[in-house]
């Protein structure tokens, strides 16, 4: 399905805004959250046009998680203060992975049987694990960057397959921003911020 010039413009704009947002996240800048909200709102349109419905729905959830992350970064720390970077507790990672796998199966089956989704299971897996990564970022868990890099590699392949080239380039750039985020956040970890 050919994309209209308006959708291409929206895709380029959304890609630019989200790249800025990820760089701001890597630098622990609170403005990463409002820019994320603006970028993902535009991607709702892009993914609808590409028939990537799980990713379209993911953008709506991202808006909610971005509001949560914005609040947590400002007030989720000790004594309702600024949240500090920490390591993810193993139980959070285990439970999050189980939920993401279950969501992948449920969403994949739904989109395969009830919609004309282009890649129901791949789209659902990337959606589910992106939500886990976004939750981990909202809680400032260092390991969110590992998960984002892994997810981004698979997203690049999917977007190339769907001819969403500006978005594929964006996700390639995200890998660089995620690497920066990991390096910056690792420096920010203090013994007090370690969680078990």
Describe this structure in words.
By secondary structure, the protein is mainly alpha-helical. The protein is built from seven helices and no strands. The N and C termini lie far apart (49 Å). Mean pLDDT is 89; it is low at 192-196.
List keywords for this structure.
disordered C terminus; 196 residues; mainly alpha; 76% helix; globular; 7 helices
The number of helices is 7
Q: Residue-averaged pLDDT, rounded?
A: 89
Q: How many structural domains can be distinguished in the coordinates?
A: 1
- Which structural class best describes the helix and strand composition? mainly alpha
Number of strands: 0
Shape: globular
Order of secondary-structure elements: HHHHHHH
Measured on Cα atoms, how large is the radius of gyration?
A: 17 Å
Strand content: under 5%
Q: Poorly predicted ranges (pLDDT <50, ≥5 residues)?
A: 192-196
How is the main sheet built?
Answer: none
- Helix share of residues? over 70%
State the end-to-end CA separation. 49 Å
């Amino acid at each position: 399905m050919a994309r209209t010039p308006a959708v291409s413009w929206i895709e380029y704009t959304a890609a630019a805004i989200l790249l800025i947002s990820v760089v701001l996240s890597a630098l622990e800048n609170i403005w990463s959250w409002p820019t994320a909200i603006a970028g993902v709102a535009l991607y709702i349109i892009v993914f609808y046009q590409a028939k990537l419905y799980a990713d379209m729905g993911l953008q709506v959830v991202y808006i909610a998680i971005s509001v949560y992350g914005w609040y947590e970064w400002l007030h989720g720390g000790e004594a309702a203060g600024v949240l500090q970077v920490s390591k993810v507790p193993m139980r959070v990672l285990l439970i999050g992975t189980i939920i993401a796998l279950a969501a992948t199966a449920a969403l994949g089956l739904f989109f395969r049987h009830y919609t004309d989704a282009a890649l129901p299971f791949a789209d659902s897996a990337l959606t589910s694990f992106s939500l886990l990564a976004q939750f981990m970022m909202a809680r400032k868990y260092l390991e969110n960057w590992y998960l984002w890099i892994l997810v981004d590699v698979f997203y690049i392949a999917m977007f190339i397959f769907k001819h969403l080239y500006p978005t594929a380039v964006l996700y390639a750039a995200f890998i660089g921003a995620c690497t920066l985020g990991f390096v910056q956040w690792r420096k920010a970890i203090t013994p007090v911020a370690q969680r078990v």
